[in-house]
Amino acid sequence: MSSGGPAPGTDLAQIFKDLVVTFLLAAAIFGTTIAFKTETAIGGLTLETHYGLAAAVVGVVVVGRFILWMTVWRKRTVAVSVVPGGLKQAIVGKLGFLGKYFGPTMLLFALVFPFLPFTDRYLLDLGILILTYIMLGWGLNIVVGLAGLLDLGYVAFYAIGAYSYALLAQYFGLSFWICLPLAGILAAFWGIILGFPVLRLRGDYLAIVTLAFGEIIRVVLLNWYQFTGGPDGISGIPRPTFFGLPFKRGEGNFADFFGLDYSSMHRIIFLYFLILLLALVTNFVTNRLRRLPLGRAWEALREDEIACRSIGLNTTLVKLSAFATGAMFAGFAGSFFATRQGFISPESFTFIESALILAIVVLGGMGSQVGVVIASIAMIGGFEIFREAEQFRMLIFGLAMVVIMVWRPRGLISTREPSIFLVRKKSVSADMVAQGEGH
Amino acid sequence: MEYFVQQLINGVTLGSIYGLIAIGYTMVYGIIGMINFAHGDIFMVGAFISLIVITALGLTVSTGLGLTFVALILVLVCAMIIASAYGWTLERLAYRPLRGSFRLAPLITAIGVSIVLQNYIQIAQGARVKPLQPIITDGYTLMTKTTEAGEFVVQISNIQILIISVTVILMAVFSLIIAKTSLGRSQRACEQDQKMASLLGINVDKTISTTFVMGAALAAVAGLMFLLYYGVIDFFIGFVAGVKAFTAAVLGGIGSLPGAMLGGLVIGLIETFWSAYFSVEYKDVAAFAMLAIVLIFLPQGLLGKPEVEKV
Known about the structure:
- The complex is a heterodimer.
- In chain A, 66% of the residues lie in helices and 5% in strands.
- Chain A is built from 17 helices and six strands.
- Chain A has a two-stranded antiparallel ribbon. Chain A has a two-stranded antiparallel sheet with strand order 3-4.
- Chain A is globular and about 75 Å long.
- By secondary structure, chain B is mainly α.
- Chain B has one domain: ABC transporter involved in vitamin B12 uptake, BtuC.
- Helices cover 71% and strands 7% of the residues of chain B.
- Chain B contains eleven helices and four strands, in the order ααααβββααααβααα.
- Chain B has a two-stranded antiparallel ribbon. In chain B, strands 2-3 form a two-stranded antiparallel sheet.
- In chain B, strand 2 and strand 3 form a beta hairpin.
- In chain B, helix 6 crosses helix 8.
- Chains A and B meet through helix 1, strand 1, strand 2, helix 8 and helix 15 of A and helix 2, helix 3, helix 4, strand 1 and helix 9 of B.
- Chain B: It is found in: Cell membrane.
């Protein structure tokens, strides 16, 4: 069942052998878990058999593999595509041209999106969700894409931001606009507290410690019942106001002030522009930071830590700044999430969220801002398309993650804008960009 | 004192299960430097296959001792073989095409595979918790103490003896395989330098596949042990167990087989003692905090080789 198996010609004996192996593996994998379903019954478990279904699945796998042998893998041996270097360069150039206009076009679309005739409540909510993930992706991109630190617990900072706003609003009655910067600062502060001891560690150790930190935050939120409400979460989080004008019916509210008819859509549109603004700020700050010595130090660190140290960079400080900046944006996004939902519980901050954000960054092409946008739309939008197939949604999602990654290991956008260049700006193939090891 | 001894026994049992899973992480990491995130889910699949085979065989507590023994070996072999098929297939489909690619790529596919396995089992086997009637009961009383609250008995149950002895045997066997056989030699060679190993005629692809198969087989053993010990499984057990086992592997020094076992024991003991003396809710926090503390002071883990930084 290898997807990249070498295929020297269409040797029938070889194909047959391969199909037999495929059959045996498929039978072992699906034949057990699909054919026999354990059911709880009185006095123990019973087995429910689904031989037909299992046989069908195994059959599909074997036949599918046979079709692959006959079509895709056969062609590959006949015409090995040797794209001339010049042509490849030209394609890259064309893509770069496209890339130049892609960003502004998307931005324009994002700006007019709430006012388009077909935009309804559902699409707008989806837009808000996608923008939230774009913002989180851009925030994590600073840590993973630029500084090359593998962070598997990014959602912890998102949770800290959300709970900061919810708790500050609950206990001190502070408004959203005061809490937003506070949430960012608190998240960045936690980033520093966590980062300080662990950033000396090698990449994979950092990954596991950040993962552990994410779990710790979740467990604490879950169990500190008196303070955080535990599994019940916090409800009744105040909605944001338009510079003090609440989105409610009646005198002195947003609609009344501007002489508009009250519509529940106003609040949604406001939330949409709020998250759009937050996301754009994230992008703007990231792009500006990349030009500062600090941003260059991040990228240099990703490429070669030893070289960085030998030219006198304080690597701990550089890493810490990336970690804290990323955490801060997660904190902003978190407080937006809290105000949008009006209710938060630890359920929203599980590991799967961290994995999703990381997947968006890596699938988009690490370090690429446009890539994050494309990946967010593809992942979150695609996730929505399969809303009907509730049960199979996560399965398809996981499969898509694997397939996209195998198809484009460097991510969808695999060229990088160099942050500094001599004479002429050329896009750099991602193959030249070192791996995000962060050691 | 009696309470302490009882917790020690429980901790060692739990630690053995973690250790068995951790070996899979540590071997794969040692050889291709990748966190096989789906390994915890292979463990879960192993537990489910064991459950299916046990139910199919109709194994209950009333089955005779000899028959139970034979049946359990059969269950073990089935679970190991089928979990190996899973491990092998995953390596071929999701990891091999990405070998030599940059480091985060296989990590992302591994997370994807983990999601796929969890949801596949959830769909195929149902989302509800699966209870299994205890098959092995009884045990030995080691100590008794009479207090005003009644008698406190320190017990080691047969299932605990089984888990600990199976772990010890498997540990010994695998250490021997790594140390003495030609397969073990190729594994160690690939760990040091894959290019050089392939120049010397070692089939690197095959060696890596075998490593995945070995890890998956051990995870399946752990799955069976978990099933017998706790008696309830669901499709989500792989995540927590996987994270703990990976923590154990890192704690013991990733890439080191005895380290994985030691790390597993340490994590198991911390968790058990923390639950026993402080609070059950925060046992995971204790285990993870321990990891952070060890890594800060001993960055290479307890038994790991110090990393040499090369330019």
